[in-house]
Design a protein that fits this description.
Layout: H1 14-21, H2 29-38, H3 41-56, E1 60-70, E2 78-79, H4 98-110, E3 115-119, H5 128-141, E4 146-149, H6 152-162, H7 169-183, H8 198-204, E5 205-206, H9 211-223, E6 228-234, H10 240-261, E7 269-276, E8 288-289, H11 303-307, E9 325-326, H12 331-344, E10 350-352, H13 355-358, H14 360-366, E11 373-377, H15 383-386, H16 395-404, E12 408-412, E13 418-421, H17 435-442, E14 455-461, E15 467-473
Parallel strand pairs: 1-3, 1-11, 1-12, 3-4, 6-7, 7-10, 8-9
Antiparallel strand pairs: 2-5, 12-13, 14-15
The structure holds iron/sulfur cluster (SF4).
The site of iron/sulfur cluster has 11 residues, from strand 2.
Length: 475
């Protein structure tokens, strides 16, 4: 049953926050806004950390070894924050062959990986059979690999591409998803969440499904017994109230999944991961930052905050510059938002830290601001890296970051069950003799300008096989 909210209580009162940490009280949207606006960062972080410790204990923090595979960059949508998509007739448009895709899974297996995260652009040329055959081929060759694939916007486009013989949105989604699940799909990733508030979403996610369709897709996945994750991309045109409204919808639909399906083998949101918008090479990134545009006055509120409402009903007429100014999120905004998500999403088990966009050390700090999970060892990433953020960590480095934050690193699977707890001297990080070589080679690789050629990143796999792999980061 959902926890109660108490609007009459002062959320800044330590006694009230102790009830939140204990899982006896739910933070309301208005209280969340107060936490964001008024609670000092270190205090907010400490409460989020305590809540995380209440759920996950004091000792173990996790990571997963998976591979992010983007099977095509051809996409019907034109999200203004995306530097990855291509039209089908562009020179560098691609769709990977089965052989390439299976080769990537094979490389993952070599380093002890347990799952693939497979998402694409939304490519109208690929028929349903292409996906079914691909999933069957992966499962046939690599039955041990968990397939976490196809975000809600892809599913919503699938029903347009494949025209299922059903009348309702949920029925159409169920028709497609059931076939993909029968062919090998194990769970559904939360890509394409961005910000749910309609005004923001329409402005940045051109051609992408709305919040209702996104959330319905995940509910259908839960009905079919699949777990999912939820995401949020912030730090652009949205207001802080939009972030809270976004979390509120996820929390509400998670309540619904648990209430309707929890006793009957249904799935649920297992994790929430949020990250800041990366502006490089995107049309949204060409918007002036608030304060840098003509006539901006930093003493005035940010246009997104003027427009945003906690119920998502904001009207663009509230500020003439809405959608024409961005407010990029730095590390403190990131940590504040992540900490808030831990406290707000009381019905979601895992909060992931986003070192891919924020860098290893802010990602590490995330473990003290409510996150229990460092996400994945990075073999390959094509989407946010196209927008400028490229950090690359292998297993020893992730383990060391977790250990240096005061925890024991543990490899997990997609269901957050622990596979290997690295407490002994034989741990991946403890076997490293020379850290300087690791740092120099690959701790972070930033690309300053768009480049025609892929950048090759070296990924150490010595922990498992003594081999080195090369991942490509494409435009
Ligand atoms: S973010 Fe995804 S859906 Fe949007 S344009 Fe890029 S590839 Fe397409």
């Amino acid at each position: 049953m959902a926890l109660p909210t108490r609007e009459d209580l002062d959320i800044l009162d330590a006694a009230v926050m102790r009830d939140v940490v204990a899982g006896e009280l739910r933070v309301s949207p208005a209280q969340a806004l107060r936490l964001y606006d008024e609670m000092p960062l270190e205090t907010l972080g400490r409460w989020a950390d305590l809540r995380c410790r209440h759920l996950h204990g004091d000792h173990i923090r996790t990571y997963v070894i998976d591979r992010n595979i983007n099977y095509t960059n051809i996409c019907t949508a034109k999200c203004t924050f995306c530097a990855f998509r291509r039209d089908g007739d562009e020179d560098d448009a691609y769709t990977l062959e089965y052989k390439q895709l299976l080769g990537k899974v094979d490389e993952l297996v070599e380093i002890g990986g347990t799952q693939i995260l497979m998402q694409g652009g939304m490519n109208a040329d690929l028929p349903l059979g292409w996906y079914l055959d691909l999933l069957r081929a992966i499962k046939e060759q690599f039955p041990q690999i968990h397939i976490h694939a196809f975000s809600p916007p892809e599913f919503v486009e699938f029903i347009r591409f494949f025209d299922p013989p059903e009348s309702s949105l949920a029925g159409k989604l169920r028709w497609v998803m059931r076939q993909l699940a029968d062919a090998g799909l194990d769970s559904v990733p939360g890509g394409g969440g961005e910000i749910f508030a309609p005004l923001v979403r329409r402005k940045i996610g051109l051609g992408k499904c709305d919040a209702q369709a996104w959330l319905t897709t995940m509910y259908v996945a839960h009905e079919l017994g699949m777990n999912t994750s939820a995401t949020m991309m912030f730090g652009h045109i949205e207001g802080i109230a939009d972030r809270i409204h976004h979390m509120e919808l996820i929390r509400r639909w998670q309540d619904k999944s648990i209430a309707d399906l929890g006793g009957g083998g249904g799935g649920q949101y297992k994790a929430f991961i949020s990250w800041p918008f990366q502006r490089h090479a995107t049309s949204l990134g060409r918007c002036a930052e608030w304060g840098a545009g003509a006539g901006d006055n930093l003493d005035d509120p940010f246009p997104g905050d003027v427009v945003a409402t906690l119920d998502g009903s904001g009207r663009k007429e509230a500020h003439p510059l809405f959608g024409r100014r961005i407010r990029l999120a730095g590390s403190t905004d990131y940590l504040r938002t992540q900490a808030l998500s831990r406290l707000y999403l009381d019905n979601i088990y895992s909060i992931g830290s986003s070192w891919v966009t924020m860098g290893p050390h802010v990602g590490q700090m995330g473990l003290l601001f409510g996150a229990n999970d460092m996400g994945s060892v990075m073999m390959e990433e094509n989407v946010v890296s196209a927008a400028g953020a490229v950090f690359c960590l292998n297993e020893p480095m992730i383990c060391r970051l977790i250990r240096d934050a005061g925890f024991i690193p543990a490899q997990r699977d997609n269901g957050y069950d622990l596979l290997r707890i690295h407490a002994s001297a034989d741990a991946p990080d403890r076997r490293v003799k020379d850290w300087s070589a690791y740092r120099a080679r690959q701790l972070s690789v930033h690309r300053k300008e768009p480049q025609a050629e892929p950048i090759h990143l070296t990924v150490e796999t010595s922990t498992f096989s003594g081999k080195r792999l090369t991942g490509s980061v494409h435009r």
